[in-house]
Amino acid sequence: KSVFILGCQGCPIGCETGGPPWIDEMTKLLTDAGMKVTGSALIDMICNKAIVGIRLGRVIDRIAEAEAILVGSCGVGVQAVGNMVGRLPVPAMDTICMGDYQGLFPSEERCAECGECVLAYTGGLCPVTLCAKSLVNGTCGGTGDDGTCEVSTEQRCGWQMIYERLEALGRLEDYKRYNAPKDFRKREISDANRRTIRWALEVAEQEVDSETETAKK
User: Fold this and answer.
1) 208: Cβ–Cβ under 8 A, 6 or more apart, which residues?
2) Where does the record place the Methylene-tetrahydrofolate reductase C-terminal-like domain (predicted)?
3) Per DSSP, which regions of the chain are E strands?
């Protein structure tokens, strides 16, 4: 019923999916849907938790009034917010492959760029990257009694961490939600655009050439 809107001015700006226009669009969309927008903020790089901590500290009272935070960033940014604020982070967009490039200030958070984000249902913790088996529907049968992973006993079970986060947020019902198998085609660069390691530059050049040809006509 109440949401705080947080936008990233890093990668989303380059992808033309963020910035002030996006904040205005989301504010209108949510307000028209009958939801209360408690406030909004733009942060240069949401993947930088130091910056996030400083900026959100200035609006913490407005965040406290919200039930969730709508985050306009890649999965790394959404998880960073979830790890710093006691509110449910909801991704506003699905992160797709950017040539294995994600976040200018990567920390412990990782995004698989699967194109089918489930962070809104896992408390802001990614099961694909936290689980050694990338399971999307709960823990396997090999989790240790102390909550450790059977694949790597030095790390905690990703789904155990998700359970604890959802419990803290009062959203354990989300743990029972069924997540469909991932469409791995969304995680790959299309065949036409992955002929070289410079595919991103080539795509940009193709778009410029196409626009030039259209202008000539």
Assistant:
1) none
2) 91-184
3) 2-8, 36-43, 68-72, 88-91
Exposure string of 95-116, with b = 16+ CB inside 10 Å and e = fewer, is bebeeeebbebeeebbbbbbbb
pTM of the model: 0.78
Residue 185, CA distances (Å) to 99, 196, 202 in order: 14, 18, 21
Rg (CA), the chain: 19
Q: Which residue has tokens 């992955």? A: 194
User: How is residue 61 written in tokens?
Assistant: 């009272």
User: What digits encode the pLDDT tens for the residues 70-97?
Assistant: 999 888 999 999 998 889 999 998 887 7
Separation of alpha carbons 29 and 11, rounded Å: 22
**Tens-digit pLDDT profile for residues 149-171:** 999 888 899 999 999 999 999 99
Residue 140 near residue 150, CB atoms below 8 Å: yes
The topology (CATH level 3) of 2-125+170-216 is Rossmann fold (3.40.50)
Q: Looking at residue 208, what is its pLDDT?
A: 44
Answer yes or no: are the C-beta atoms of 13 and 71 closer than 8 Å.
Answer: no
Contact between 13 and 47 under an 8 Å Cβ cutoff? The reply is: no
Residue 145 is predicted with a pLDDT of: 86
Q: Check: CB of residue 76 under 8 Å from CB of residue 41.
A: no
Q: What is the residue extent of each domain of the chain?
A: 2-125+170-216
